[in-house]
Amino acid sequence: MTVPETLVDEHHEPLLDKCESHLDENRNWPTHGTYEYTSYYHSRREIVPFTDFIAMDKEFDFVVIGAGPIGAALAFKLATDNPTSRVLVVEKNWAEPDRIVGELMQPGGCQAIEQLGLQNVFSDISAVPVHGYYISYRGRQLHVPYMHDANGQLRGVSFHHGRLVMNLRAACKAQSNVVCVEGSVTELLGQMDNNRFTAVRGVRVGPQRIQADGSDECIDVCSRKLTFVCDGITSQFRKQLNERPVELISHFCGLVLEHEPVSSDTYFDGPTGTTSHVSRPTDTAGNPLPMPHNGNVMLDGVGPVLLYQMSERETRVLADIPGPFLPSESNGQLRETLRTSLSHAAPKHLYPALHAALMRALDDSRRIRCIGSKFIPATANNIDGAVWIGDALNVRHPLTGGGMTVGLWDVVILTDLLRTHDAANSQQVQRVKAQWQWRRRPRALVVNVLSVALHALFAAETKELGLLREACFEYLAKGSHYTMQPSGFLSGLLPSPMLLIFHFFSVAFLAVYLRVSDESVAYSGGSLLYRVYSAFYTLYIAATVILPVIWRELQP
Q1: How far apart are CA 477 and CA 406, in angstroms?
Q2: What is the mean pLDDT of residues 118-129?
Q3: Does the first or last residue of the chain, that is N or C, have fewer Cβ atoms within 10 Å of its Cβ?
Q4: Is-contact 179 49, C-beta < 8 A?
Q5: Cα–Cα distances in Å, from 536 out to 185, 370, 383, 508, 547?
Q6: Over the stretch 141-156, which tens digit does the pLDDT of each residue have?
Q7: Contact between residue 219 and residue 187 where contact means Cβ atoms under 8 Å apart
Q8: 204 and 185 in contact (C-beta within 8 Å)?
Q9: Distance between CA atoms of 477 and 480, rounded to whole angstroms?
Q10: In 118-246, at which residue ranges do the beta strands (DSSP E only) sit?
Q11: Average pLDDT for residues 455-467, to the nearest whole number?
């Protein structure tokens, strides 16, 4: 099937195909509407090159390091909450970024976006509404919808990561009190004790590309109130706050499928846009996804395989390879591992169209793009004058797509607290940071712990973990609160650590029952005595999966 290319204008701005403008009948979705900052999307008039910044005033009220999704949202909120303050945003490259994760916003993240006053940010970027999860396991299918509120079903959004970032940056560039500099922050400036910062009072800024011999001219910038470190998962300043080793859990390998869009009257019914149809596994025409407008999770590969749309015509495939080591691409081992994983996740006899699309995408890709999946727990921040936020503070496995939800709610909570406190008063700021850590923890803990625990179950590298994976699927299939409350954890809408622990161990005890009764398919056989022993050993394994992660999240 030949798929038309996405239309672009002369500035390479994506345009919605006319046939896509009415695919979702409900105009209340966050992907509809007009974005008030669209004219700033490609504009570089507001971006100050480093060479021009040298001649500017070097004192600012707030300094934001990094203009990713969290840094850009934070700078926008600081500027609108403090219209008389000067906000500096330093970013190495203001061009559209290209990443293979950070492309799905959970409903909890959409709520945070609304709190920040950016509810139209998903418009004009070909974003797609997301209604829940489709899960496939051993030839069985399960739909886990998102929760409902008084206005109907809550929803997430999936998109091209770079386009969302550019829309968020456009909102920054539109603010008259924001200075957007294209350069690199090379150092934090302030007071140190035993090579550790006790206070940050500014930053040292250099050009985009820093010479290895240190010959570049750099300038010092003063931050009168606060410096925010938002330079993402590869933060060069994280060790100033957190020296704990980074745990590499697995790797995600990314592909892109191109396909025809799905018509709304096929998959959605009623004014709330509720998903009412799962495609028949034998469907071979049109969109090959098992359930468009949902996150599709296939559990039978080497690791879990995720599929979600970036637009009506493009779908991201993320195939997980468990463990810290990635097979080599140069000798073909990586492609062979991916071929095996994708073939098992979407077998040809069950998903002929999807299987063919996956194999074609793998064969056509010149280079397999991979990214390490890490876990970095947050730590308390006692450094005066600086705040670490977003992935610079706290990283979780991207399996559940909750990273931006945590980061954006961190921005909402922090800026709400700063509105009622003097950011220039160090004692008040320390109280703000203490309250912020306390208020952010429940949601961050649930999202972070769930991402690591679910990956351990879904990757299932042992029989015991395979049994827990089977029990998890059976538990979600029960419906009612067995389905909807775990959905609330996944979507960032139910920040209750105690309820998460209750459901996790409910799954573990269901695994015990399946093993003892010999009803398990994943772990069967053996005498009754051995089944009892292995069942309670599985319970022990479940505890070792979740409790150490919770303990690390609770550490100051």
Answers
A1: 27
A2: 91
A3: C
A4: no
A5: 52, 37, 45, 9, 16
A6: 999 999 988 777 788 9
A7: no
A8: yes
A9: 9
A10: 128-130, 132-137, 140-145, 148-149, 152-153, 156-158, 178-182, 184-193, 196-206, 219-229
A11: 95
Tokens of 245: 């080793």
- Name the token pair of 484: 């909807």
* Position 11 confidence tier, pLDDT thresholds 50, 70, 90: very low
Over residues 156-212, the pLDDT tens digits come to 999 999 999 999 999 999 999 999 999 999 999 999 988 889 999 999 999 988 776
The 3-state secondary structure of 490-516, one letter per residue: HCCCCCCHHHHHHHHHHHHHHHHHHHH
Partnered with residue 373 across adjacent β-strands are 250
The gap from C-alpha 73 to its chain's centroid, in whole angstroms, comes to 15
CA distances from 446 to 86, 110, 401, 494 (A): 35, 17, 13, 8
Partner residues linked to 206 by β-bridges: 184
Interatomic CA distance for residues 517 and 10, integer angstroms: 65
CB 240 within 8 A of CB 187: no
**What are the tens digits of pLDDT across the range 426-448?**
999 999 999 999 999 999 999 99
Query: Which of 503, 502, 527 shows the shortest CA–CA distance to 515?
Result: 527
What does the alpha-carbon distance between residue 442 and residue 422 come to, in Å, rounded to a whole number? Answer: 26
Cα-Cα-Cα-Cα torsion 26, 30, 33, 38, nearest 10 degrees, comes to -160
Q: Which residue carries 């909807």 as its tokens?
A: 484
Contact 267, 257 (CB under 8 A): no
- Mean pLDDT, the chain, whole residue set: 88
Q: Which residue has the higher pLDDT, 426 or 274?
A: 426
> CA–CA separation, 185 vs 206, rounded Å?
6
CB atoms within 10 A of CB 219: 15
Kindly tell me the sign of the dihedral angle through the C-alpha atoms of 161, 167, 173, 178. Answer: negative
Residue 22 pLDDT level (bands cut at 50, 70, 90): very low
Helices 426-459, 403-419: axis angle to 10 degrees equals 170
Of 217, 174, 2, which Cα lies nearest the Cα of 72? 174
Is residue 189 classed as helix, strand or coil in its secondary structure? strand
- In this prediction the pTM is 0.90
Which tokens go with 340?
């095996």
Q: Cα dist. 453→98, 186, 554 in Å? A: 28, 36, 16
Say which amino acid occupies 115.
Q
Question: Is 134:141 a contact under the CB 8 Å cutoff?
Answer: yes
Specify which residues 25 forms β-bridges with: none
Beta-ladder partners of 191: 199
